[in-house]
């Protein structure tokens, strides 16, 4: 080593020594400072050490202590953490030794002081781990602290974790096991008493731990189940519980803890037994939670073995754990409990002894007592100890009472099902056996252990019960079960017997005999099943004509049965069977012997009854009837006796007794539910079985049909038809029941089936026609009735139905607007009614009602298509009516059908009134009071006559008739409705009362609600009106009157848009209301007139009104108002010829009406109609006719100055002038124009319009003088007043056309016309003056006066024409579009200009934002879009123009645009 290196090393050593000396001194300073509580100095000293040695453990700990005392808690914790990281095995940082100071603390003390309990617990756990290897006392102290903090601040699970540290398998237990045993006499001797006690007396510690774990796991299961139940797609609760239990039980702490208790030397017997019970239940629950699938097969088998081991231990040691014993009993795989060889009766006895108060014990006691089964404690000694028979309670009742307490016990279900079969209570046996099979499925699925013999036992019970439960209804199901059992046990006696009984019931005697013989071979000496099999075998031989073999066997069996106890019924049955196949006298003897053997044997009484009724000499029907009654009383299954009894009662017309017999017979065969009430899958299956007594179901159906209980009748006939599907009468009655129940489609099918079976049954055809009539298929019904009349021409019932069908057909056609068809139907109805009167004297009241209704329907028309037919029909009716009419005398004259005069609806109504009145007289002549229907019909008809004739003198009679009708039938809502209509205008309170009464009797009477709403509306209560009408709409959304009423309410409330929508909906309903058509059309035309120039309100919007009015005028051909409105709509649509025809009809109707009433209102309507006709004739270029009509209107106008008269006069004069002008008579024309101006007088608006029209007319002469005169006419109209018109006046005075001063400076139409004239005559000064005036007007004012936007058009054309300034024209168009962006014309005009300026992209941008509803605007936009696209995208352009052509093939402009697009496409290619 060189000297330099030596020097360096020496320096380093010296530096190290100095540093160590410095570190030691500073650590000593820090320790002393901590002892003196000078924490600042301690921190400084410790910090100085750490500056030299950053990983100095002691300095870090001292720093942490001082920082903690100085309140710098975060820094202190960081220092502690750093210290524990430097030396994890040193406990100093975790817990400072008290040698420093009692107040000094480590990390655990720090956390305790800070109450950070989780971190405090972590530090204690670390200390436990550190002290475990070094100091057991400190380890125990740390454990006790941890236990205390978990008890006070932790959860149950955290307490369990701490207590588990002292279990034998824990490392801590090994460390603490060295502690001395606790001195319980001096508990303060050590600081670790709790830990010492838990180590050396561990059983209480383990018990407490078990209690906590049980509670924690149960709470965890419940919480987890509740949490998972809220998930989407969660399984059922049972599956969810099993999943949670299985997941938790796989990691459960309880099994090891139970083992600890069981293996503990201090465990008492009681504790060991309770722990065993807990272990069993825990393991059983785990077993049940494991799925019974292949994936968990091994796990389930393992747990099952554990359960079996626990059960076996409890049984061997006779531990009184009822669950263990019950599970053992239920796991026994045997077919029957009664079999000692299969079931351990000794074990059952032990169970009864150990659990004497258990319901299962009571049930088993009762079972052994009932079955008389002996069991003994000393079987090896040959003793027989039986249960004493002196039991306090009946054993069967004991079993039933016990079963109620344990219905889910498999043993209980097996016992009870066996007893029910023994008691022949097959219905309950089926229920209990099915319940037992369900429990068995659950048991097998839960335990994973299959019990095939138990399943066979249940199936045998179920099959036996089904065989004998109302045979043969359940034989199909029983046979499936029997086949299943026999496939596993071929010699099962009960199933062989069951199968043989099924074959016997099916008439398969050979096969049944074979099976009975097989049972006889298996049980040759058995006196129960074996002897019965032998008897049945012999009976089968007798049935297959082998009585020589069968009768001896039966006779041999009789003495055997007679010697046996409790076999009287069997002996009676055997004797009865012998009597069935012996000579008649011998048979009678055997029947008597049978009844002596068992007086309650019903078949013997039946056979005796047949003997007395058919074979006795002499016959004795009385005795036979008594025998049948006795047989039926004893057994309702005696169908032959019941049938003969029912036939006898029917002959005596004892229908109630027939019903009783039929119902009891049905009950005897199982009733509607086949004897199994309340079972789920069973009742639905039994309804498919055939009834054994179809006649009983037919009788019951006929009774229910007579009583109008249609659903039960339908069901009865359906069941009867299952047994006899070819019975035409049953199909007929079924169809009738369907029809009366309102199920018309099903009725048609049933009746058609009956007609197939019996085509000659006219009743079936009649019922088919009646059903079709009810369905509204009137034509089919009429055809059916007429086909029946071909063979039965005088049948009054058929004629009445045919007349009613024609009547309803006419009403339907009338409501749908088919006036001619309705007229024909009503006329035919009258003729059929007259034929009915000729054919039969009966049904007179019904026939006259039909005739009256038909004539009343005819009265709805004012004229008739086939007047001669209607006239002849009415004449025939009048000929049958009496001349005098008491009910109508003083109100109307006797009904007379005019010969020469036109037949009107009023005349037909008078004949209807006479017919209704005659109907009342018929009722009175038959000594009966007049029916409410007749009085009501007459009242309604008379009310209609009063309304149409306008003669109110019969109003009181109307009210009297309707009141009498209500006295006859006060609950008829239709009568109250009619009374309300009669009071509508005269007495609001009475009308309201009547409507409310109608609603009370029929809450769903939509007409009553509607009438009530209209009443409220009429008297200005719109709120109540709206509520009533809304209720009517809810009840029947297709009732048009309610919608019309709502529209009127909306109009009254100022909601015109909603009212229009409601009316539009109302006219689309069927049947429609004519008044609604008229109201909708009037509103549409009124809106068209007010917004006719609006862009979105073109003439095509009047098309619905056109068709609606056409329909209205067809139904109301004499309504002048409708015809007049129809003419105006036709005029607006350009249909001038139709308009002229309608107006001529209107004029004729008004003229006739005026001749009758001379009403000035009619006169004014006549004048207006002539004026409108003249205008339309002018459009048709019928100038002479127009002049004539205008002159007629002038002749009818008065000389007053009323505004309406003035307008009509001006229009007439001007129209005459136009007609004369167009005819070339200029002088007359000018005279008429002057007269028009004179008539306008001081009416500035009217005079201005005439002046403009006159100027335009003069311009049409086409010579310079006339043109100048037209300009003068317009210029004279203006008054130059105020500063606003000074400049315009100056320009006008300089114009060569100005001659005089007019009177209306703000007539925009005149200004516009002047500008146009100036442009056409190159008078620039006039054009500039007019345009400046136009531009000076405010925009709103200009648009208000110019709805057609003629000013914008004029400005645009002026800039394009004279000035040739497209830019200014575009500015005008843009301004118009900006003000009205939704106006299609403005958008189209600007787009056209863009296309002309070769800017197609701008045009497309304008057109892309437009969506039009009207076809006209759509066509315009499609054409422009196609032209704009034709330059760059010819395919898209072709699609657009093709759409336009398809929309309107007759529009020439579309074809021109198509040609242009094609030319562009050709150029492009």
- In whole angstroms, how far apart are the ends? 105 Å
Alpha-beta content class: mainly alpha
Q: What is the number of E strands?
A: 0
> What oligomeric state is this?
single chain
How much of the polypeptide forms β-strand, as a percent range?
Answer: under 5%
- pLDDT < 50 runs, ≥5 residues: 93-105, 375-391, 678-687, 1093-1097, 1278-1305
Radius of gyration computed on alpha carbons: 56 Å
Shape: flat
Average pLDDT, rounded to a whole number, is 81
The number of helical segments is 74
Which sheet architecture does the biggest sheet show? Answer: none
| Percent range of helical residues | over 70%
Nutshell version of this structure?
The chain has 1469 residues and is mostly helical.
Structure report:
- With 1469 residues, the chain is mainly α.
- The protein has 74 helices and no strands.
- Helix 14 (269-289) runs antiparallel to helix 15.
Notable traits:
1469 residues, mainly alpha, 74 helices, 0% strand, flat
List the helices and strands and how they pair.
Elements (H helix, E strand, L loop, with lengths): L2 H33 L3 H14 L4 H13 L3 H14 L20 H8 L2 H16 L3 H18 L2 H8 L7 H6 L16 H8 L1 H28 L7 H13 L4 H10 L5 H21 L7 H20 L5 H9 L14 H10 L4 H13 L23 H11 L4 H13 L3 H22 L4 H17 L6 H14 L4 H13 L3 H14 L6 H15 L3 H17 L4 H13 L3 H14 L4 H14 L5 H14 L4 H13 L3 H14 L11 H7 L7 H13 L3 H14 L4 H13 L3 H14 L4 H14 L2 H12 L6 H20 L3 H21 L4 H15 L8 H14 L24 H21 L6 H18 L5 H14 L4 H11 L4 H14 L4 H13 L3 H14 L4 H13 L3 H12 L6 H17 L12 H13 L4 H13 L3 H22 L2 H20 L3 H14 L6 H21 L2 H15 L3 H16 L4 H12 L10 H9 L13 H13 L3 H13 L2 H7 L4 H12 L4 H14 L4 H13 L3 H9 L6 H15 L4 H14 L4 H17 L1
Helix pairs in contact: 1-2, 1-3, 2-3, 3-4, 5-6, 6-7, 7-8, 8-11, 10-11, 11-12, 11-13, 12-14, 13-14, 14-15, 15-16, 17-18, 18-19, 18-20, 19-20, 20-21, 20-22, 21-22, 22-23, 22-24, 23-24, 24-25, 25-26, 26-27, 27-28, 28-29, 29-30, 30-31, 31-32, 32-33, 33-35, 35-36, 36-37, 37-38, 37-39, 38-39, ...
């Amino acid at each position: 080593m060189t000297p330099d290196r030596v020097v360096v090393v020496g320096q380093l050593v010296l530096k190290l020594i100095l540093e160590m000396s410095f570190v030691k001194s500073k650590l000593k300073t820090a320790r002393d400072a901590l002892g003196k509580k000078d924490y600042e100095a301690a921190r400084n000293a410790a910090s100085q050490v750490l500056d030299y040695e950053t990983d100095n453990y002691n300095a870090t700990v001292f720093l942490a202590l001082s920082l903690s005392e100085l309140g710098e808690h975060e820094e202190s914790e960081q220092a502690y953490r750093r210290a524990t990281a430097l030396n994890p095995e040193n406990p100093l940082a975790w817990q400072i030794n008290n040698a420093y100071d009692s107040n000094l603390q480590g990390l655990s003390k720090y956390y305790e002081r800070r109450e950070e309990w989780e971190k405090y617990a972590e530090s204690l756990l670390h200390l436990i781990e550190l002290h475990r290897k070094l100091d057991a006392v400190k380890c125990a102290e740390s454990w006790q602290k941890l236990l205390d903090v978990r008890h006070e601040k932790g959860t149950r699970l955290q307490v369990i974790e701490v207590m588990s540290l002292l279990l034998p398998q824990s490392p801590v237990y090994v460390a603490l096991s060295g502690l001395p045993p606790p001195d319980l006499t001096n508990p303060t001797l050590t600081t670790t008493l709790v830990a010492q006690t838990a180590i050396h007396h561990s059983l209480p510690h383990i018990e407490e731990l078990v209690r906590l774990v049980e509670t924690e796991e149960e709470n965890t299961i419940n919480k987890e189940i509740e949490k998972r139940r809220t998930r989407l797609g969660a399984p059922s609760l049972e599956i969810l519980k099993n999943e949670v239990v299985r997941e938790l039980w796989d990691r459960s702490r309880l099994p090891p803890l139970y083992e600890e208790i069981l293996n503990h030397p201090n465990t008492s017997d009681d504790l060991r037994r309770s722990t065993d019970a807990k272990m069993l239940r825990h393991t059983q629950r785990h077993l049940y939670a494991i799925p019974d699938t292949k994936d968990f097969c091994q796990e389930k088998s393992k747990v099952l073995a554990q359960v079996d081991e626990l059960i076996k231990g409890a049984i061997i040691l006779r531990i009184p754990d009822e669950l263990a014993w019950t599970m053992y009993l239920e796991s026994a795989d045997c077919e029957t409990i009664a079999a000692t060889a299969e079931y351990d009766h000794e074990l059952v006895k032990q169970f009864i002894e150990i659990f004497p108060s258990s319901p299962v014990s009571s049930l088993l006691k009762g079972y052994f007592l009932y079955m008389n089964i002996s069991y003994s404690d000393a079987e090896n000694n040959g003793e027989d100890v039986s249960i004493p028979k002196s039991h306090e309670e009946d054993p069967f009742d004991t079993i039933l009472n016990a079963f109620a307490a344990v219905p889910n016990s498999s043993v209980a279900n097996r016992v009870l099902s066996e007893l029910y079969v023994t008691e022949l209570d097959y219905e309950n046996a089926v229920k209990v056996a099915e319940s037992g099979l369900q429990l068995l499925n659950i048991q097998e699925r839960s335990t994973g252990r299959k019990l095939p013999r138990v399943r066979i036992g249940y199936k045998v019970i179920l099959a036996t019960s089904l065989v004998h439960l109302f045979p043969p209804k359940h034989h199909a199901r029983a046979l499936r079960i029997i086949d299943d059992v026999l496939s596993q046990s071929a010699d099962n006696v009960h199933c062989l017997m069951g199968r043989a009984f099924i074959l016997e019931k099916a008439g398969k005697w050979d096969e049944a005999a074979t099976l009975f013989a097989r049972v006889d071979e298996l049980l040759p000496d058995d006196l129960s099943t074996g002897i019965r099999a032998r008897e049945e075998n012999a009976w089968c031989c007798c049935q297959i004509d082998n009585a020589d073999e069968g009768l001896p066997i039966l006779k041999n069996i009789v003495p055997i049965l007679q010697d046996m106890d409790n076999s009287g019924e069997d002996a009676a049955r055997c004797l009865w069977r012998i009597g069935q196949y012996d000579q008649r006298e011998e048979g009678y003897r055997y029947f008597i012997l049978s009844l002596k053997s068992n007086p309650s044997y019903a078949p013997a009484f039946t056979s005796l009854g047949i003997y007395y009724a058919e074979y006795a000499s002499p016959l004795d029907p009385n005795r036979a009837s008594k025998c049948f009654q006795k047989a039926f009383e004893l057994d309702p299954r005696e169908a032959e006796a019941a049938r003969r009894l029912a036939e006898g009662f029917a002959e005596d017309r004892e229908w109630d007794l027939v019903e009783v017999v039929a119902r009891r017979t049905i009950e005897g065969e199982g009733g509607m539910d086949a004897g199994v009430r309340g079972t789920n899958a069973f009742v639905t299956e039994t309804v498919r079985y055939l009834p054994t007594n179809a006649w009983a179901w037919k009788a019951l159906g006929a009774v229910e049909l007579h009583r109008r209980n249609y659903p039960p009748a339908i069901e009865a006939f359906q069941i009867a038809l299952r047994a006899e599907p070819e019975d035409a009468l049953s199909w007929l009655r079924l169809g009738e029941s369907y029809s009366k129940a309102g199920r018309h489609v099903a009725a048609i099918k049933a009746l058609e089936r009956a007609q197939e079976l019996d085509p000659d049954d006219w009743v079936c055809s009649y019922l088919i026609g009646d059903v079709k009539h009810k369905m509204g298929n009137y034509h089919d019904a009429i055809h059916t009735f007429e086909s029946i009349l071909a063979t039965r021409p005088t049948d009054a019932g058929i004629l009445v139905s045919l007349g009613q069908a024609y009547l309803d057909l006419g009403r339907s056609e009338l409501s749908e607007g088919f006036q001619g068809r309705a007229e024909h139907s009503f006329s035919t109805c009258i003729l059929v009614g007259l034929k009915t009167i000729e054919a039969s004297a009966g049904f007179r009241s019904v026939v006259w009602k039909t005739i009256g209704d038909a004539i009343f329907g005819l009265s709805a028309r004012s004229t008739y298509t086939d007047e001669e037919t209607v006239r002849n029909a009415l004449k025939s009716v009048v000929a049958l009516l009496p001349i005098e009419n008491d009910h109508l005398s003083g109100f109307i004259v006797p009904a007379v059908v005019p010969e020469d005069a036109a037949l009107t609806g009023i005349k037909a109504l008078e004949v209807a009134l006479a017919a209704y009145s005659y109907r009342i007289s018929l009722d009175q002549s038959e000594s009966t009071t007049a029916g409410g229907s007749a009085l009501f019909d007459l009242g309604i008809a008379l009310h209609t006559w009063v309304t149409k004739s306008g003669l109110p003198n019969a109003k009181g009679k109307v009210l009297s008739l309707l009141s009498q009708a209500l006295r006859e039938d006060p609950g008829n809502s239709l009568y109250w409705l009619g009374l309300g209509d009669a009071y509508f205008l005269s007495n609001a309170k009475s009308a309201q009362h009547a409507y409310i009464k109608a609603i009370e009797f029929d809450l769903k009477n939509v007409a009553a609600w509607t009438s009530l709403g209209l009443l409220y509306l009429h008297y200005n209560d719109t709120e109540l009106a709206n509520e009533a009408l809304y209720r009517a709409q809810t009840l029947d959304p297709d009732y048009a009157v309610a919608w019309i009423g709502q529209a009127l309410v909306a109009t009254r409330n100022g909601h015109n848009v909603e009212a229009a929508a409601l009316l539009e909906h109302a006219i689309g309903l069927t049947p429609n209301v004519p008044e609604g058509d008229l109201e909708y059309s009037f509103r549409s035309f009124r809106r068209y007139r007010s917004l006719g120039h609006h862009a979105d309100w073109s003439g095509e919007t009047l098309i619905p009104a056109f068709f609606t009015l056409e329909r209205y005028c067809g139904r109301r051909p004499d309504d002048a108002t409708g015809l007049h409105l129809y003419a105006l709509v036709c005029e607006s649509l350009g249909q001038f010829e139709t308009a002229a025809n309608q107006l001529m009809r209107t004029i004729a109707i008004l003229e006739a009406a005026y001749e009758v009433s001379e009403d000035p209102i009619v006169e004014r309507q006549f004048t207006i109609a002539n004026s409108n006709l003249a205008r339309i004739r002018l459009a048709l270029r019928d100038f002479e006719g127009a002049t004539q009509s205008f002159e007629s209107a002038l002749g009818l106008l008065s000389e007053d100055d009323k505004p309406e008269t003035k307008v009509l006069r001006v229009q007439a004069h001007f129209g005459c002038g136009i007609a004369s002008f167009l005819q070339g008579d200029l002088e007359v024309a000018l005279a008429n124009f002057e007269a028009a101006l004179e008539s306008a007088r001081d009416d500035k608006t009217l005079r201005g319009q005439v002046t403009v029209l006159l100027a335009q007319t003069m311009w049409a002469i086409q010579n310079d003088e006339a043109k100048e005169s037209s300009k003068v006419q317009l210029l004279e109209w203006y008054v130059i007043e105020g500063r606003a018109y000074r400049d315009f006046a100056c320009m006008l005075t300089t114009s060569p056309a100005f001659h005089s001063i007019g009177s209306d400076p703000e007539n925009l139409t005149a200004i516009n016309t002047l500008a146009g004239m100036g442009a056409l005559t190159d008078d620039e000064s006039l054009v500039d003056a007019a345009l400046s005036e136009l531009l000076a007007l405010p925009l709103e004012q200009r648009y208000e006066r110019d709805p057609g936007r003629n000013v914008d058009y004029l400005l645009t054309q002026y800039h394009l024409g004279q000035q040739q300034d497209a830019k200014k024209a575009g500015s005008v168009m843009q301004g118009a579009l900006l003000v009205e962006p939704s106006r299609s014309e403005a958008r189209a005009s600007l787009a056209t200009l863009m296309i002309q300026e070769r800017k197609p992209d701008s045009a497309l941008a304008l057109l892309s934002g437009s969506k039009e509803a009207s076809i006209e605007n759509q066509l315009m936009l499609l054409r422009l879009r196609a032209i704009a696209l034709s330059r760059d995208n010819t395919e898209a352009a072709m699609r657009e123009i093709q759409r336009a052509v398809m929309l309107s093939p007759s529009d020439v402009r579309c074809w021109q645009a198509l040609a242009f697009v094609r030319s562009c496409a050709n150029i492009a290619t």
